[in-house]
Amino acid sequence: MVISICTQGLPLARIPIQCYLNSSSKITLRSQKTHSMPPEKIEVFKSLEKWALQSVLPLIKPVEESWRPHDLLPDSTLSSDEFIDQVKALRDRTNELSDDYLVALAGSMITEEALPTYQTWINKLDGVRDESGSSLSPWAIWSRSWTAEENRHGYLLKTYLYLSGRVDMHMIEKTIHYLIGAGMDWATENNPYMGFVYTSFQERATFVSHCNLARLAKERGDLILARICGTIAADEKRHENAYVRIVEKLLEVDPTETMMAISNMMCNKITMPAHLMHDGQDPYLFDHFSVVAQRIGMYTTNEYADILEFLVGRWKLEKLDGLTSEGQRAQEFVCELAPRIRRIQARVDERTSKINHKFTWIFNKEVSL
Ligand SMILES: [Fe+2]
Ligand SMILES: [Fe+2]
């Protein structure tokens, strides 16, 4: 995979830099820019701490009121016979799930399981990182609480898939191992403006994809799995609200810098969190997983365009004023981007022909791409 770099929507370069995953991986990284936020902007985030305390931290759910993965899994505190009955019922339900759905669900779970990468990433953002590991800054409290809530997602889905017997856990665990080792390359440059734009988009994308997985599970008769995906989606929605609010506030206090950050992120294309996934065998694993996710309706390019349109509307970007001329160019680019994405995707769809592909996650069974 080669990732395009562009400015204002125009492709500038396709820079293949070999990632150090392993010799068979075809994944490449773009050239990496770091600490792009001017140091004086740190004061912007310091000045917003009181606001974050009042407007962001209330979106964390109190621990005592939070759901637990164990509440949605076979109850291991029951007698052995009763527990086994619940596991059998789970396996009967998951027997009805299609192979392509399992690929999509496994890919989603693997993405959640790379949480150490995401917590590392958020703590690399200038001006909002957790400096001590237990800092009382509202940004740090948010990042630790967000991580604690997210930590349940991968665990719950992984345990459910493990009990189903439908997936090759050895290969899935190997993929998680490779993925955490590889890290990520989201082009956010340690810049919290860009970082919070990324998380606004990404949390909404995971909300959409988990909702779609819930709907598909329901259609296939697994109502417990539908509830699990719906429960995770509700967390993602709350997290989306927090990040969207932060960017909204940044647009109010620093419109041009924030508009430039939105434009830069959209120009680079929002990279999915697990884009460096690898199973030791398929050099294009992430691309193949993405095609399955698109085809079964878990996450599509149209939804990517929908999310962009939603954020443009939510942040009132078309009406944003007080921008420099550079900011106005960025505004124009972002506000006109969604229809362009839809047109390009329609042309790609016309040319795409179906092939079959084997996924190690489901014992090398074939699904159509
Ligand atoms: Fe999550
Ligand atoms: Fe999330």
Radius of gyration: 21 Å
Main sheet: strand order: 1-2
Element string (H = helix, E = strand) = EEEEHHHHHHHHHHHHHHEE
Report the CATH topology name.
Ribonucleotide Reductase, subunit A
Outline the biggest β-sheet: 2 strands, antiparallel
Domain unit count: 1
Bound molecules: fe (ii) ion
The overall strand count is 6
On the 0 to 100 scale, the average pLDDT is 92
CATH first level? Mainly Alpha
Would you identify the regions where 5 or more consecutive residues have pLDDT less than 50? 1-23
- Percent range for β-strand residues: 5-15%
* CATH architecture descriptor: Orthogonal Bundle
Structural class: mainly alpha
Number of helices: 14
Principal-axis shape: globular
CATH superfamily: Ribonucleotide Reductase, subunit A
Question: Could you estimate the helical fraction of the residues in percent?
Answer: 55-70%
Distance between the termini: 17 Å
Question: How is this structure best described in words?
Answer:
With 369 residues, the chain is mainly α. The chain contains 14 helices and 6 strands. Helix 5 (115-122) packs antiparallel against helix 6 and helix 12 packs antiparallel against helix 14 (337-351). The protein is globular, with a radius of gyration of 21 Å. The site of one fe (ii) ion (FE2) has 6 residues, from helix 6 and helix 9.
Keywords:
two-stranded antiparallel sheet, plastid, mainly alpha, fatty acid biosynthesis, metal-binding, iron, Ribonucleotide Reductase, subunit A, 369 residues, Putative stearoyl-[acyl-carrier-protein] 9-desaturase, 6% strand
